[in-house]
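So, can you check what follows?
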Amino acid sequence: MPYPCLTLLLLLLITSANLVQASSKVLLLNSYHPQYTWTEELTHGVRNALAKDIAQENIYIEYMDKRRYIDDPVYNQKLIDLLQYKFSKNIPDIIIASDDAAYRFMLQYGDTLFPNIPIVFCGVNVFDPSDLSNNPNITGIAEGMDIEGNLNLITQVQPKVKKIILIGDTTGLGLRMVGAAEKIKALWQKKSSKKHIEITILDDFSLPELYNTLGQLPKDTAVLLMAIHKDRLGAYFSFQEDLPKLSASSSVPVYGMWGSLMINNGAIGGMMNDPYQHGSNAAKMALRILAGTAVKDITVKESALYQPKFDFLQLQRFHINEKQLPPNSKIYNKPDSFYLKNKSLIDSSIAIFIFLSFIIALLYRNILQRKNAQNKLYQFNIDLENTVRERTLELEKSNEELQKASALMSSFAHTDSLTSLSNRRSANQEIPTYMKRHSISQQGFVLGIVDIDHFKKINDNYGHQIGDDILIALAQTLNSSLRPNDRVYRWGGEEFIIALPETSMHEATAICQRLSKNIAAISVDNISNITVSIGITSLQKHDSYDSIIHRADTALYQAKENGRDQIVTG
């Protein structure tokens, strides 16, 4: 019989689709420190990609801190000793090496520290395929450097540019970047349309000297910052602290390639990559290997995806028109127009204005007809009475329509247009009534404030449309998770207020725990593990509306201070 065989075949295919064991151990070896924005987002991408297949306690994350301790042989030896000690028993099943320092460290010491363990690298700026000729157990995704793409971008954005300065440093990684830039420079300048543009590479400077140099550049110049770890005097360069100063001192735009490190820190933009996606793709490659794919069967990807990204504020600062940007550019910090911010209100106001104009026109016409009827009163008395009766019916109908429109506007005024929840105005009117009623009946009343954790990062990483979708999904979850007599309001931004009548603090805590659990199950556009912080408080004897709101807000603040994803009573 063919059917049992077919069933067996299907079962084999299903069970072989995912051979990754949750007990598999994954070591993520980061080149830099956890506070470094690039490393933080790349790590986040790795963890999220592994979350469904690897138990969290089996994901080991190490930070080599090689931006602050670059080219330090003593520190390097201590790292070797530490890793050898830590992983002599907890041997990983696979290693993900993030960025150049970790990649080159594993090339040199991987066989000694982790013999026969497969390695997936990512974030390598200067990649040479020959490095892997004797390392068949290594594959990955080279981040690369889109220097040529940025040079082309600069000439498009600044068509009058005559000089482009490439900035690196003299650390090990810096020298490799500068070497790669020298080769690209020579090839790029051979193009007939680029011969008039001078390219200079700057890598030997102190930070004060660099600030002074950039502050005196002529307007027909542009700067492409490749990477700076340390200056000539050994001073550490922080993208978060020093790049804004460098940009502020520069008389010309500063471009870059590292999206989350440079956007919002003073860079105007450039052909940039995404560390979160980079880490996620490397983790998916590691999962393929854990599932049984041979390392040799996974081809090394020699470049990440670079896309044009720009900071609206810097475009304005240097008077660069958006029409000069590539058509697929992503622009950060661009404010919404007044119309987009108030679209619903403006459209409603226009509709009401048109409607009222129509009513006025009808009334004016009616008045003219009445005057005409009065002039012919004696001749057309019977016709006039009929006309007046008809017009009265029209006015009554118009009045009914106006009353309906007024009721609709009242509903708009008390409803949040995005989530369809009652809004802050509605809360300000209804909650004091609840408080008064429960003060008289002496029944329990609990007020809570719910705040989405790290919502700004969601907007920054995925865009405001995804953020809006998450707000809508969370609002629906709140509505469906609360009891029929409970009320939920959108307080503003990512905050919501819940009013729990006839409820004790013990019951309110259980309700909020259920809310947190249901919210954590939300998944929007592959974004999951959404958490909330909740502050709750019960009605006291002499409470005012402001005092109970303040107490709930204080409890919410404490929940955030305690690490978020929790409920605090006040």
Notes: Residues 1-6, 9-18 have pLDDT under 50 and may be disordered. The first strand starts at residue 26 and ends at 30. The CA atoms of residues 376 and 384 lie 9 Å apart.
